Amino acid sequence: MSAARSTLPRSTRKKHKEFEHEALPHMDVLYNFALRTTGNADDARDLLQETYLKAYRFWDKYEKGTNIRAWLFRIMKNSYINRYRKETKEPDKVDYDSVENFYNSIRSEQTDPNDLEEKIFGGLLGDEVAKALESIPEDFRTVVILCDIEGLTYEEIAEFIECPIGTVRSRLHRGRKLLQAKLLEYAKEQGILGHD
Amino acid sequence: MDCREVHDHFGDVIDRELPVTLRERFFTHLRRCPRCHIEYLCEFVGKILVRKHLPHVRTPADVQSAIIHEIQIADPIESPQNPWLIRIFRRHPFPAIATGIASIALVLYFILPRGTHGLSVAGLAPNDIIRQTHENFMLIRKGELTPAMVSCERDLVVGFFEKNNTRFAVAVPQMEGCDWYGATTNEFGDALTAHVVYKLGNDYLYLFQVEKTKVGAQATLSLPESVLASLRETGWYTDIDHAECSIILWSLNGTLCAAASTMSKERMLALLSYR
Question: How many interchain CB pairs under 8 A, A with B?
Fold first, then answer.
C-alpha cells in the first residue's frame, strides 16, 4: 500500500461535513417512514440508502435554511414511488356498514367506552396493526404514519406532502376510519367481536 | 356544535390541534351525544393502537454505517498532486530512487523499536491481543464487523466512549484527512474493550484498546512475553510481517492500544504519534 494515499478533495470533505450535520440527524424519522411504508426491514434499508445517496448527489440543489426533513422526505417518497409502486391503487372503500354496526353493538352491549381499547382490540398483535396500516391507500397511510408514529404537526405534514392543511385533516380522518374498519375485521376474525 | 361539526374536529382534538376556544363546545356535545362519544373514542383508540404496536424505532447501526460508507465512496477519490516530485523522478530517476531508498532506510533505523518481530497469528492464543486485533481488522475490511456509531467528527467518538462509561482512557487520536471515524465497545471476559476505526482514503486504521491491568499471563487477555518485554523497554512494539496488515502496540495512561492497518508502518507511526 502506497504511503502517499489517495485523498478526498477539500471541497468534498466540506460537503461531507455539511451533509452529516444537516441530513444525517433525520435518519430515524426517514427509517421509520420507510419501515412502515414498505412493511419490511430489508426494503426500508434499501429505500433509506437510496434516499440518502440521492440527497447527497443533489446536495447542491438543497436550499440552505429550508426544511431539510421535508426535502429528504420528498426524495424518499419519490424513490418509493419509482421503486415499489407499480400502479396506483384505487382508494379502498370504507366498509361503513361494518363500522356502523360496530358502533351500534357497543351501545347495545353497553360497553364502557373507556375500556374500548382493551375489550375490543386488546387481543390484536403488532403484526396485525402493521398489516392493517399497510392495507390502506398510500396517501392516507402517509399522513397516519407522519402524525401517529412520527408525531408531526399538521403544519409539518402539510409541508412534507406539499398539500394544504385541510387536505392533511381529511386524509387523516379517512385514513383512521379505514384503519378502524380493518382492525375491526381482524378483531372479528379472532372472535373478539361477534360476526354480523 | 352539531354532530357533523364535532366529527370534523375528531382529529383536531386527538392530535391536540383544536383551538382552545372550541374545546368546551366540543366536549359539551360529546357529553350529551353518546353516539359521537363512541365514534370519537374509536378514532382515538385507533391512534393509541398505532402508537402502541408500531413504536418509533432507531435506525439499526449497520444500516447507518452502510449509508455513511456509501456516501463516502460516492465521490471520486483524487490522488494528491505532487508535480515537483514527479518532475524530479522524470528528470533524474536513478539518483531520486537511490535517495529515496536511503531516506527510508534511515527513517526505519531511527523509528523501528528494537523489539520488532513478526508473529504468526495462528500460533497465538485465542485471547492474545495481536490475534484479536488481526482478526477484528480482517472482519472490518470484509464489512462483517461494523461500528456501533460512525461520524466525521472526532469529538462525537470521544463522546460515545464517555457515554458508554468506559472505565479507562480511550485514545482517539485526531487524524488529519480522516473521512470518518467509527467506534464500538464490547466485553471479552471481564475486560471491557474499546474499538476505533478510521477511514482514510482507501485505507482503514483500526485501534483495539483495553485497560492495561487486564493484560498479562494470568489476566483475561494475553500477549507473548517478548511483546510485553518490548513494551516495558521501549513503550512500543511493531509487528510487521503479516501479509494483510501491520500491527503496532503501545501503552499510554494505563491503556494498552493495538493498531492494525493496511497502510505502511511508517505512516501508521506518524499518525499515531499523538503524544
Answer: 163
